[in-house]
Design a protein that fits this description.
This protein has 441 residues and is of the alpha+beta class. 28% of the residues lie in helices and 27% in strands. The structure holds shikimate-3-phosphate (S3P).
Length: 441
C-alpha cells in the first residue's frame, strides 16, 4: 500500500494547473455515448474514476478514442444503440459513475450489474434506486448497497421528484432516466447542487428548464453530439486554495495562482467560506469554457479566523471539507461545521477520518453527528506531524499533504493510491507549488 511522506514546507507560490473536472468528465462520456455523432472532448480527466466510466461505456459497445493527452473522441451510438454485456461493470471507487450509470441503464433494453471497489461496495445506492423505481425501473440492491442489478426493458414514466437529500448524483440519475421516460421529469432540490448535467444536456440539444430549485426535462427524440471543453476541477484546486491561504508568507510576497479552474457557482462554496474566514483570494481572467465559467484564482497567505460555516454553503462545497478542516485548524478561534452529515457517506466517513487525523497531529476537535467543531491556532506550527491514515480517501490524503505547510515534523499519510481517482499527477503539481512530498511503497 503506498503512502506519502511530506516534509514541513516553508511556503507555496507560483502558478499551478489542476487536471480536468471529474464530474464533468464522467458526464461527457455518458452523454456523448448516447448522442448521435462524434463528441470531441478536450481537457478530459484521465483519472481512475473517469477511466472506469470509459471502460464501462466501451463494454456497452461505444467506441471511445483517446486522441491525445486529455483529448477524447466519443463515437455516439444514439439513445438506443448501447448493448448489454454479460459481465458486471466495475466502477472502481466512483460513486458518481455508479449512481449516474444506474439512471442511464434503467432505460435500456438489457440487464446490467454494477460493482466497485471495497469503498464503493459499502456506499448507499437506494437514494438513486428509490426514485428510479418510482419511474418504473427494475433495480435491486443488496441491503441498499452494491451490487446494483438493473433489469432491462422497463417502460419508464416521468415523475416529479423532490430530493430528500441535496445530491447532484441522484438528481442526475433521475434526469438520465428521464431521457428514456414517457412524459416530462421534474426534480426539485432542497438546496442548490452542481448543475453540470443540466448544462450539458442543454449542450446536447435537450429541452430542459431550471428555475427556483426545479429542473424539468422533456424526453428528447435524440441527443446531438457536440464539442466540450472540460475546465480544471475546482475540487482539485481546493487543496491549493487552502495551501495558499495557510502558507507562511513567502519571502518575495508572491501568491499562488491556480490557472484555468471551473468556477461554476454551484461548485465554489469554498471561495465564499474562505472569504468569510478572511482569506485573500482574487478571481482573474474570467472566461467561459463552453457551458462552464472558468478563471484563474490567485491566493495569498492570510490570517484566517474561525466561523460557523453557513449551512447553505455546504452542498456548494461538499467535496472541499477535508481541505477546509485543515484551514480551520490554522484559523484563529473555533470553526463550526453543521448540516454536513453527507460527509459520512463519501469515499470514507470524512468527519470521523479527518477528526482522527487532526487529533493524531495534536489538533483539538469535536466530532458532531453532522459536522465538526475545530479549535484553530493561527500562529506558527499547528500540526505536530506523525502518521495519519487516509483510509483510501483521495481528498483526505491531499488535505493532509497541505497540512505540511504548518507542521512541526514530517507527516506520513497512509493508503494514498486513490489520489489517482481524481488527481493523477498530484505529487508533481504539489511539489511545483512548494510542498515537499514523495510517494513511497
Ligand atoms: C458529484 C456529486 C456529489 C459529489 C461527488 C460528485 C457529481 O455527490 O460529492 O464528488 O458529480 O454529481 P452527491 O450527489 O452524493 O452529493
Amino acid at each position: 500500500m503506498s503512502h506519502y511522506v511530506v516534509q514541513p514546507a516553508t511556503g507555496v507560490a507560483g502558478a499551478v494547473r489542476v487536471p480536468g473536472d471529474k464530474s464533468i468528465s464522467h458526464r461527457t462520456l455518458m452523454l456523448g455515448s448516447i448522442a448521435e455523432g462524434i463528441t470531441e472532448v478536450s481537457g478530459f480527466l484521465e483519472s481512475e474514476d473517469c477511466l472506469a466510466t470509459m471502460r464501462a461505456m466501451r463494454a456497452l459497445g461505444v467506441t471511445i478514442e483517446q486522441a491525445g493527452p486529455h483529448q477524447v473522441r466519443v463515437h455516439g451510438v444514439g439513445m438506443h444503440g448501447l448493448h448489454g454485456t454479460n459481465h458486471a461493470l466495475d466502477l472502481g471507487n466512483s460513486g458518481t459513475a455508479m449512481r449516474l450509470m444506474t439512471g442511464l441503464l434503467s432505460g435500456q433494453g438489457f440487464d446490467s450489474e454494477l460493482v466497485g471497489d471495497s469503498s464503493l461496495m459499502k456506499r448507499p445506492m437506494e437514494r438513486a434506486a428509490g426514485p428510479l423505481r418510482l419511474m418504473g425501473a427494475k433495480i435491486e440492491t443488496q441491503g441498499g448497497k452494491p451490487p446494483v442489478r438493473i433489469s432491462g426493458g422497463a417502460q419508464l414514466t416521468g415523475i416529479r421528484f423532490e430530493l430528500p437529500v441535496a445530491s447532484a448524483q441522484v438528481k442526475s440519475a433521475v434526469l438520465l432516466a428521464g431521457l428514456y421516460a414517457r412524459g416530462a421529469t421534474t426534480v426539485i432540490e432542497p438546496a442548490v447542487t452542481r448543475d453540470h448535467t443540466e448544462r450539458m444536456l442543454l449542450g446536447f440539444g435537450c429541452s430542459l428548464h431550471a428555475n427556483a430549485g426545479e429542473v424539468r426535462l422533456e424526453p428528447p427524440a435524440r441527443l446531438q453530439a457536440c464539442s466540450l471543453e472540460v475546465p480544471g476541477d475546482f475540487s482539485s484546486s481546493a487543496f491549493f486554495l487552502v495551501a495558499g491561504s495557510i502558507s507562511p508568507v513567502p519571502a518575495h510576497g508572491a501568491g499562488l495562482t491556480i490557472k484555468g479552474v471551473g468556477i461554476n457557482p454551484t461548485r465554489t462554496g469554498l471561495l465564499d467560506i474562505l472569504a468569510l474566514m478572511g482569506a485573500d483570494l482574487r478571481i482573474l481572467g474570467h472566461r467561459s469554457a463552453g457551458a462552464e465559467p472558468v478563471a484563474d484564482i490567485e491566493v495569498h497567505p492570510a490570517r484566517l479566523k474561525g466561523i460557523h460555516v453557513p449551512e447553505h454553503l455546504v452542498p456548494l462545497s461538499i467535496d472541499e471539507f477535508p481541505a477546509l478542516f485543515v484551514a480551520a485548524a490554522c484559523a484563529e478561534g473555533e470553526t463550526l461545521v453543521t448540516g454536513a452529515e453527507e460527509l459520512r457517506v463519501k469515499e470514507s466517513d470524512r468527519i470521523q477520518v479527518m477528526a482522527d487525523g487532526l487529533r493524531a497531529m495534536g489538533v483539538t476537535c469535536e466530532v458532531l453527528p453532522d459536522g465538526m467543531r475545530i479549535q484553530g491556532r493561527p500562529d506558527g506550527t499547528v500540526f505536530s506531524g506523525g502518521t495519519v491514515d487516509s483510509h483510501g480517501d483521495h481528498r483526505i490524503a491531499m488535505a493532509f499533504a497541505v497540512a505540511s505547510l504548518r507542521a512541526a515534523a514530517p507527516i506520513k499519510i497512509l493508503d494514498v493510491a486513490n489520489v489517482a481517482t481524481s488527481f493523477p499527477g498530484f505529487v508533481a503539481v504539489a511539489r511545483g507549488s512548494g510542498l515537499s512530498l514523495a510517494e513511497q511503497g
